[in-house]
Amino acid sequence: MYIDIRTHMQAKPGDDHHQEFMRTIAGLWPLAKGSLSQVRRPCMRKQCRACAEGRKHPAFIFTYREEGRLRCLYVRPELVPTLRQAIANGRKMEKRLTQLGQEMVVRHRQEFAGKS
User: What pLDDT was estimated at residue 14?
Assistant: First the structure.
């Protein structure tokens, strides 16, 4: 998968924020936004012992938002560790994006104060 990220702000000479951001992204692959939950579901077999005893069967569900609506997908067990890491990386990425926004506003205020 190829990701092309473009910013609206032009990098200034000596501004290393863009390169730092790109290094951060490279170190956070895979990325996902959402949550992973383990649920217990009944199966379709009529004579299932686990379902008859109320234990049911474990399943994993990935929950995410799409166009403002909550969506869910079943996740195969072999994908669970990778998806957990992707969600953790996505949270780190969101935190970093928030920090970058705050830093941008502070830098802009400092530049504006210097021009007055």
Answer: 46
